[in-house]
Write a structure and sequence with these properties.
Length: 128
């Protein structure tokens, strides 16, 4: 059974930092690109970042570029999202997802159906 499990969310003050983890099991990790997403209440899902775990290439949406950093530890089957300089508008549920079509990592696609597996999400709340 394939599982993606996010962790590391929580409550932080504006300007603070959090590191999210996405631990994968049941799949050949470096056959996938891993994307990070968020969804705030009443808003559409937003694709934030993607890492191609095969070659390490990373991609970011403009709203998080320079503040968020995605990385992977293939030995641990884990992808991380380091989030710095957090803002109240970063408040959302954060998800990771695995895409076997690594070519599309750069496209930062947000449609749920494009991805093979999703995690359950972790809440991030940034207070002002």
């Amino acid at each position: 059974e394939v599982q993606l499990v996010e962790s590391g969310g929580g409550l932080v003050q504006a300007g603070g930092s959090l590191r999210l983890s996405c631990a994968a099991s049941g799949l050949t990790f470096d056959d996938y690109a891993i994307g990070w997403f968020r969804q705030a209440p009443g808003k559409e899902r937003e694709a934030l970042s993607c890492i191609n775990t095969t070659n390490g290439n990373t991609y970011y949406t403009e709203s998080v570029k320079g503040r968020f950093t995605v990385s992977s530890d293939n030995a641990k089957n884990t992808v991380y999202l380091q989030m710095n300089k957090l803002k109240p508008e970063d408040t959302a549920v954060y998800y990771c997802a695995a895409d076997s079509d690594r070519f599309y990592c750069a496209a930062l696609r947000s449609y749920r159906g494009f991805y093979d597996y999703w995690g359950q999400g972790t809440q991030v709340t940034v207070s002002s």
